[in-house]
Amino acid sequence: MNLARRDFFCATACCLLCSGKAVPGNKRPLAVQLYSVRLLAQADLARILNRVAQLGYQGVEFAGYYGHAADEIRRMLEENHLRVAGAHVKLETLLGEELAGTVGFNREMGNRTLIVPSIPEAYRHTIQGWRDAGRQLKELAAKLRTSGFTLGYHNHAHEFERIGGELPFDAFFDAAGTDIKVQLDVGHALQGGADPVDVLRRYRHRIASVHIKDYAPGKGIVEFGEGAMDWRSVFTAILSDRHIEWCISEEEAQSCRDDHCITGSIRKIREYL
Question: Of the four, 119, 137, 211, 264, which is 20 to 30 A from 152 by CA?
Fold first, then answer.
């Protein structure tokens, strides 16, 4: 899948204008969730990692490994001076005999942060189910901690859709305990009816990373800056919490093709970071 010449020159310009060194006041490293460019990553992971580095991102978060061995990925990251901001892993890959393989692969790759992106649907229909899921992840976090790994959970919209007056998000994290880190997806939170700034404040010191994503009522997930998010307030809350290690750009809008979204979003995000 070829990258357009126009995009190449845009990438070069963004690298000069938007890199962490070029923009004063960059208080948080910025990564990109590779799901944003999954087709390009599937076609040529080495090329898209180079592209991401050119644009000025300091890290990447994985959601799949595109058929590559862990040592291959580590080499590609080192060649492009990129860090791993984490990896989304399915819950079943942390259970039973699968756990050792998941830990071994990520250790070899250079990653020590594992994020569960969702829980099985069977847990989602009752508040008790969310509490049970939280307790299960709490047990997993204890096992992973002995291997030097951190476990987190990434929300979607349904965590903020009340069940019997209670928020599944709160029930889950109350049961999970403080060992489970919060990866707050602000776009999904807004989509679920929450105020992302309120969540950032209430879960201060428990949030390890934030997915930067925009949402517009009636349109769904949209490109960064085209939704209803109060980004000034969101980034003020992020920058006030020193426990937040990464901001992670994730573009899921239907309008995103190839890599133009991650090219444009870094320029816009750097206005706030």
Answer: 264
